[in-house]
Structure formats: C-alpha cells, structure tokens
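Title: Prediction job returns without error message
Component: structure pipeline
Severity: low
Priority: P3
Assignee: unassigned

Description:
Job completed but the reporter wants confirmation the result is attached to the right record. Sequence as submitted:
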Amino acid sequence: MMKRLASGAIVLSLLGGNALAQDAAQTIADARAALGDVRSITYSGSAKYVSFQQCAANATAMICHGMHDPMRPIMGYVRVIDLEAPSSRHTGSTVNVGGGGSTTVTPGTFFQQVTPEQANVSQPWGGSLEFYITPWGFLRGAAENDATVSRQRMDGVDYTVLSWSPEVLAPSGASYVVNGYVNDDNLVERVETWLGENIMGDMHIVASYTDWRDFGGFTAPTQIVQTRGGWPFFEVAVTSATANPPDLASLAPAPADGPGGFGGGQQQALEVMTEELGEGLYRLTTGPGSYDSLIIEFEDHIMMLEAGQSQARALAYIEETKRLIPDKPIRYIMNTHAHADHTGGIPALVAEGATIITHANNREFFERALNTPRTLLDDTLSRNPRPAWVDPVEDFKVYTDGNRTVVMYHIWPTPHSNGLLVAHIPRERIIYQGDFSLPQPGQPGNDHIRALVPALEKLGLSDFDRYINTHRSAEPQTRDDLWRAVGR
C-alpha cells in the first residue's frame, strides 16, 4: 500500500511539474503575442542616464546635487533590439562637461551594446543583462532557459511572474535569477535581476515598462525607467517605435572611434611604498597612477584617509599599515566623496571593522549599499561579513585623542560632488583631498580648483604647507602651488 501511495505521489509530482512548464510556455507565448511577435524592434525618443555612483553635471546643470542627481540627457536617442542575433545597441548625442570639475561644455556620444557573443547566457551576466532585462530579450531568455511561473501581488496588482537563470554562475557559485512581471494584459511591466557589485553587494537591477501603446500592429512601452540598487540609472521617453525594421543593420551605429565602454588593462602587481610625514603619519602609494592613502596613528587606533581605489590596493595598504603600526586596529576609513573610483577599497576596510567617515550627504548611499547581502560575490567582505557603520560629517568634525588631531571639512559648492571632504592635519600642516587635482605648470586651474580655494579661505584653512591628493602627483605639492593655480 505504501509503495502504491509513493508511486502515486511521484506521478502527481511529475504531472504538477509538467503543468507548471506548460503554464510557463503559455505565459511566454501570450506575452510574445501581446508584444506583436516581433523579430526585432527599434524605438526612439529622449533619454537620460548616469554613470553609477556619479552625478552627470552637464550643460544645463553644472552642480551635482546628490548621487545620480542630475542625470545626463541623451538627444536623438535610438535603440535597436535584434532577437534573432541576438543583440542590442543604443545611441544618441550628449552635451557634457569636462573631467575633474571643469564646466567647459563638450559634445559627446552615448553608445552601448550587447553583442551576440555577450548575449550568450554562459558569458558574464554583467555583459548580457541589458539585453535580457528588456521585455523582448527577457521572453527569449525565458523560452530558452526553463522558466518557471508563479503568481505574485505587488503594489496592489496581481502578476504572473516568470523566473529563469542564465547558465553562467556568480563568482560565489550562486545562480543569477531574472524575474519578469506579466500583467493581465500579457504585457511585461517589470524585469528584475541581481548582479554582484563591489559596493552595492547583490545589486538589485529593476527595469519598469509602462504606458504601453499600439504602434501599428505591435505594442511598445512609452516610459522606461531603470534603477540600480534603488538609485536612478537610466530613463527613456519613447515617441516612436517600429517592428522588424528593414534597415535594422544601419540603425544606431557605433561611433567612428569605436564603441568605448568600461574596463581596463590587466591588474598589475602592487608594490606599496611609504613616505613618513611625521610621527605615526605615513603616505602610502604604489607609484605612477596610484591612489594614495594616508595612515594616522592615534593612541589606541589607526585612521586611514581613503581606501586606495580598488580592493587590491586596499588590501595591500592594510597589510602595510599593520607592518608600520602593529597591534592597533584601523578604526576609521575616511572617504573624500562617494564616486566609484574612491570607494572600491572600502569593503576591505569594513571587513577590518573600520567605520566610514564621510559627508552626511553620502551616508544613505553607504549604509544601504554596504549592508546589502553579498551572496553573489567572493571577496573580503562576503567572506568576513560585518555591518557597515558611517560616522557622518556635516560642516566639520574634529577627531583627536588629545595628542593627534585630524579635522574633516565639507567643501561646497563644487561642480564635482555635494559630499566632498578634505582632511586637515594641523601638526604637520597638511591638507589631504580627493579630486582637486592641480593643473600642469602654466595651465589655469579648472572650475573645481577655483571652487576649492575660496572654500578653504572661508574656513580659515590657509595655514598649511603640503597639499596631498589621493590621485598621486608626480612631485610633492604645496599650498603655494594651489594658490598659483587660481592666480593668487
């Protein structure tokens, strides 16, 4: 009798699995039909975007008001999605400001793509997800990767949810997951996935598709909003769309100088060199191209100014710090501002138990980001998880043990960030800062530098000798070098 019951249970289980598979297949077919069963699609309109952890000061908004505020407009925006290749590309023109705080307006080109090679789901998920979080790409992925189906209620709306995983695994060995929310009209209103990110941990990526319209036999959304980690990232207002365009290959071409993109060369071995600036005060550097940090010894702990840009450099600096000042914990890590190239090493310091000193405008970002689960990563903090604590600075804050003193000051307004700090070390008469790089000899200082000097004067910070930048300078710099850069 028990064997018969067990066999019956197995049959019911198999029947249930087949029914779920059939439900998923039917949901995919219905959604594809609602979208017009297209082979390819192009749509155009206006858009805006931002590089993650930046703001996008531009010709119409010169001052950064916060993380991802403002975003950068894209004019003449066009996107092409080819489901048969499969591939995706989008482009448009931008009007940008120069780097390093310059407000000189320069024309630019936005271009991003997912090639057929990148769209292979056995390849890195970060390179392909921009294709698969579109409604059309999502449905193709669901059809080819054994999607499952469930029902969920979100914001008072009932959805049929398709879920599937690409073949590629995360660095931790976990599977990635992508979910698509299909409404009762069989339209994909939302696609979400997660990607391991150095600061954001299991970064939640959400693309919302609303205000769907019939464009002549097929349907497309007219409002597209993507967030990453809960922060604004990309938006499109669609004004026109075409299914199966005959000139598909010529649309949204790559710029003449190449597609650009992110990335860099191979990571070189890091050799840490030290400069003793005073008793218990050292500058750590890895030579040309380095992001330099200072370490400061207090009575019962160490403060590090900036985390070395990358986790590799942060780990090297931590090791050198323990050699120079043994048997004292690194209690604080000071962050000059929350741009990506100044935060990459912070997870390694959090794993050491260090509290983050940063301006209050950056507090929400760090507390949300570094306290997000890190199940997709295999790094120092995921292997040694600790909560991230922030000690926020408003206008200024003094850190002292009665012998050693460091004072943090907020520098505002500047074009570069609304959360910039500089550190003043009175005993050695040093100012340490993050992105106020001095120009080449004979060249004028940019708008960022011109914003710094009046801020320092207003704060009464003119009695310093050494001017140290996180971005390593070829030669030591002084207060006089800074003043000359602004014509003083």
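Comment from assignee: result matches the submitted record. Residues 1-17, 260-266 have pLDDT under 50 and may be disordered.
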